[in-house]
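Friendly challenge for the regulars: who can give me the C-alpha cells for this chain first? No prize, just bragging rights.
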Amino acid sequence: MSDQVPASEDLPRWRPGVGREGAVARLVALDSRGELTTDHARLVAEALGVSLRTVWNWVSVARREGRLSARTPARTGVSADVRARLAVWGGNVAAVHRELVAEAVKAGVADSVPSLRALQRAVRQDLSAGERAGLKGGEAARRRFDVYGKRPRTHRNACWEGDHKRIPVRVDLEGSAVCPWVTWFIDVATKAIVGVAVTPHEPARDAVLAALRMGISRTEPYGPFGGLPGRVRVDRGKDFLSKAVSRALGAFAVPVDDLPAYKPYRKGTVEALNGAVEEMLLVSLPGYTHRARAAEAYHPDPVEDLLSYPDFVKILLDWVAWWNTEHHPAGLDASLTPLAAWEADGAPVEDVAEERLAFFAMEDDGRVRKITTNGIAWRRRAYIAPWMAGNVGMRVRLRYLPHYDGQIEVFSTEEWGRHLGTAYLAQAATVEQRRALSSVREKKARALKADLKAAEKLRKTRYTATTTAAAPRPRRTVTSSQAEAEIARSRGVDLAARALPDLIPPREPPASWARPVVRPRRAAGPQADAGQAADGGPPGAAGVRDDSGER
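First reply, four minutes later:
Bragging rights claimed.
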C-alpha cells in the first residue's frame, strides 16, 4: 500500500504567497511591538501577489495558532511496493490501482486504498518524467530525459572518436543486394572526418586498421587532416579492442579509451556523425530501407535499380569531402568548416614517416618460410612474384592484412625490416568462377534452411486458441500407425539403434588368462539340499559347469 508523507517533502514550487512564512514573522514582530499598520500589510500583499484581506487572515492565524505558514496536509506517496508494481505493469497507474483495490477487498480493508486520482498525482510528484518513461519504455526511454554535459574544448588531434555504422541502403554487389558498413574516425575538436573505410559486410579489425591508416597519413590522396591523435575513444566493440588495433596504436604510444557499453553519449561526436549522414545523404539514395512507405506490403527495390557498390563508395567519400570542406557542423563557429577550423588551430601536428606507415596494420604469424620453385606456401596456397626468380631457398617472413589473402608482403630474415616485395596468389579464381561458387553455396543454404524449417514444424506442437481457462488441444492429431511409422524411419537412420553388438561372437580367451572362480549356488530349501546330497554331490553342487564345459 502507499505511504503517507507530508507535502513539505515535495520539491519547491512557486505559487502565490510563497514568501508567507518570512512576511508573517515580520508582521507578528511588528504587532508584538504595537507598530503594525495597514501600510505594512499592504506592502506584503503587493509583494506576494495576494489581497490585503489574505494578509490580515495570515496575521490572525499567527496570533491564534502560532502558525506562520499554510497547513501541510498529508498526501499519498509512492512506496517501494508501488514502484515494483509500476515496473511490472509498465508504468500503468490504473492497472496498479486495480490490483491494490482487489487485494484490499480480498483482505476486507477496501477503504485503505487511495483513489486513482490521488495515486496518479503521487506518481507525478514522486517520480520524475525520466523515471516514468523508464518504467514504460526501458533505459533508452529514460535517457531521453537526462541532461548531458559537454567536454571542454580541446585542440586538433587531442582526441579521435571511432565507430561502425550499418548503412541502411541496399546496394548491388555482383548481382546481390547488400547493406554496407562504414568505419570512420572523427576529430572531436574540429569535427573533421579523418579516416573512412567501407566494407560490404559487417566489418572486422581490418576495417578499423584501414580507417586508422587513412587518418594518420597526410600524404596524397589523404590530408590535410591527420597525424597521431592524443587518444582514441571507442566503445566495447571487439574489433576496436582487438590485439591488432591495440598493437598498431600502441606502437605509436596512442592510448585507446574503452568506454562503457550502451552509453553512446560518451562519444557523442561520432554518434552525431552517424545520425547526420543518414539525414543528409542516405535518405535520398535508392534502396534506402528506412524510407516511409504506403500501408501495403513492402516490396524492396529490385537489384537492377540499386546503386553499384563502387558508385555508393564514391558517393559516400564525396559526401565526406563535402562535410570536411563546405559544411558548417554544430559545435564550431558559424563561419567555420572543419577544414577552416583545422587550419585555424595552432596546435602542432605530429606526422609519421611514410615508410613507417607502409605496412601499418599488417600482421605477422611469426614463422620463417622458404622460397621454393612453387613460390611461398602460406595457408596451403602458393604465392608467387617476379622478384622471386633466382631466390629459391631464401628464408623469409610474411606480413599480411587481416582477413585478406589475395596478396602478402615478404621480408628477409637476415635484415628484419627490409621489404623484399609483394607476392600474389598463384591460382586465383576468376570472377565467373566466384559467382558460380556463390550461387552453389546460396542454393545449399536455401535447401538447408527449408529442411530446418520443416524439422521445426515437426518438432513444435501447435495448439488451438482458447477463450476459457482450459488446456489447449493440439491442432493436428497423429494416428498410432503414423507415429510408429515415423519412429521406425528414425530408427532406420539411427546408427546407434542399428548397431548389432552380438553379430560377431567373441573369441575364446587365451588359456594363460586368469578365469573367475565360480562358486556353487545353494538351493532355496532343505529338501533340495538333501536330494543333492543323496546323489553323491555336496549340497548346491548340482548343475555347476567345470572348466572343461561338462556337467
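The longest strand covers residues 160-166. The radius of gyration is 42 Å. Your move, everyone else.
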